[in-house]
Amino acid sequence: MNTNQLALPANVELGDYRILRTLGQGGFGITYLAESIADGKQVVIKENLPTFCAYRNTTSLIVASAKAGDEAEEYHKQLTRFVEEARLLARLNHPNIVKVNKAFEALGTAYYVMPWVGGQELHKAAPAPQDITEAGLRPILRKLLEALNYLHSQNIYHRDIKPANILLKNKKVPVIIDFGTARSIISERSATMVGSPGYSPIEQITTRGKRGPWTDLYSLGATCYRLITGSAPPEANERLANDEDPLRPLANRAELRGRFSVYFLTTIDKALALRAKNRWQTAGEWLNALSAILAPKLSVKSAQSINTPIKILPTHPLNVTQSTKQKKSRLLIPLSIILIGVFSAGGYLFFHAHGEKKSPPTVLSQQDGEERRKAEAREHYQQGENYLYGLNDHEQSYQKAIQHFRIAANEGNKEALHILGVSYELGHGVPQDYTEAINWYRKAAELGHAEAQYKLGSCYEYGRSVTQNYSEAFEWYKKSAEQGNPEAQFNLGFCYEKGSGTTKDLNKAEYWYSKAAEQGHKYAQNALNKLK
Fold first, then answer.
1. What is the tens place of the pLDDT at every residue in 356-410?
2. CATH class of 3-115
3. Which pairing describes strands 13-14 and 156-157: parallel, antiparallel, or unpaired?
4. CA 178 from chain center: how many Å?
5. CATH architecture of 120-294
6. CB-based contacts of 314, cutoff 8 Å, min separation 6
7. 500, 470 in Cβ contact below 8 A?
8. Which of helix, strand or coil describes residue 496?
9. Structure letter (DSSP) for residue 107
10. Pick from 16, 130, 227, 301: most CB atoms within 10 A?
11. 3-state SS, residue 64
């Protein structure tokens, strides 16, 4: 039976709507552009029609199971699942996820109705690969991650993220569409294997591996890869079958430098890891990495360099080439200190030998020494930022950045401790090591670094490289929230709402949700509305 015979013809009235044309068709159903009979408003209607077990009678237009017995039972299961998912999706409310307004049954099958959002499919609306820049792609990626973070918080996986399932409105606002393959976590065990070549991770196209948020994140990474390179990544089973992974990491491509920072590309490469445990585990993790690594706090002195592309040069050994003037200026201070020390010591010995009673040379107090060490640590941290982001006429070098951050961290600089944790988590300038990342986060957190406290709490909540401990997560969230971290405030509100790691207290939940909402936290207001 061909496609035209399966789809409803134009002008057919379906409940309160009139079919205008067919937009698309897959193995599970057909999507139509329709209009409301009452006001002419255009909508999109999704029809349940699994072609592997059902067909449409071209005369009556009724959908029925292809055969009796097992296929009839399978069609009934698909129909029930479709209706349940439509109702599940109808509760979603996010600006970057298409809204399901209504679900109904007719012609022997089920339908759900969505608003017509317009726009073009992402790969058609986006600039050509050679014209895409980090500045253009990053805000789109952030919006998609925020949408997936929300979707996963509702215990739903999309399972078919790809450019064709993302519309771009006004060339800047992405909207995720086509939830025909979406599944709730509860029904995941019974879900069929679905996916799109190049965009689906190995656990989605085989029976191996557990599916979760990381499954959608692989697909989102593949979507970014497609936009940047012009083609989808090699299929996951092909990558797995080869002795050497045919995927060419984005971060290693010299032709992309100048338009993209290596850090940004590395976050995409991490999403495309073959093994699920090596990917981002949540959309929030990826968002945090973008915020922590890609958005440095620029000083007035370094703000000018943000207007020019980051120049990335090959890294060099430890001997950083400097101008003669710089070398001299660095030598003058130590030499003057040595000379003063020599003359002071000589004078002391001379007068002491001649019977003069002079006071011993002045020694820096412990407090003065501590202040000097802190100042030196701050200088090394600033140098680390210069190398990390290519600021203030420095070449961008992760290895050199790490050297300076490590010196600053050893002197107790909490910002350096935190960024070392981020570096080990992402594998930037150092081997990727989650245990080592947590060690640095813990040191920064114990010194009061709010972001590190939040991340440490997140590690304990989800059991990442530590034993899962909700009470420990609660304590770190509380420390971070009290310093004003909005993510920690939101999570602390959730802990109080659910009684996770603490006694359930809806008043305190409302208080912390309000604190996060005041700072513009997107999901805190939704949480407040649910409480009220």
1. 444 444 454 566 778 888 889 889 988 888 887 666 777 778 788 899 999 999 9
2. alpha beta
3. unpaired
4. 21
5. Orthogonal Bundle (1.10)
6. none
7. yes
8. helix
9. T
10. 227
11. strand
Name 285's Cβ contacts closer than 8 Å, sequence gap at least 6: 458
Torsions phi, psi for 115 (to 5 deg): -70, 150
Q: Locate tokens 């299961």: which residue?
A: 77
- Cβ–Cβ < 8 Å for 381, 408: yes
Buried b (16+ CB within 10 A) or exposed e, 314-344: eeeeeeeeeeeeeeeeeeeeeeeeeeeeeee
What single letter denotes the amino acid at residue 92?
L
Residue 234 corresponds to which tokens in the numbers above? 């090699």
Helices (H), 175-323: 202-205, 213-229, 236-241, 262-271, 283-294
Nearest to 181 by CA among 195, 202, 167: 195
Count Cα atoms within 13 angstroms, Cβ side, for 525.
Answer: 8
Which residues, including other chains, have CB under 8 Å from residue 363's CB and lie 6 or more apart? Answer: none
- Nearest alpha carbon to residue 226 among 120, 123, 121: 123
The two tokens of residue 176 are 């995720």
Instruction: Give the closest residue to 107 by CA, choosing from 192, 177, 158, 32.
Output: 32
Return the number of other C-beta atoms located less than 10 Å from residue 305's C-beta: 18
The whole model's pTM is what? 0.55
Helices (H), 34-119: 70-90
pLDDT in tens, 469-513: 999 999 999 999 999 888 899 999 999 999 999 999 999 999 999
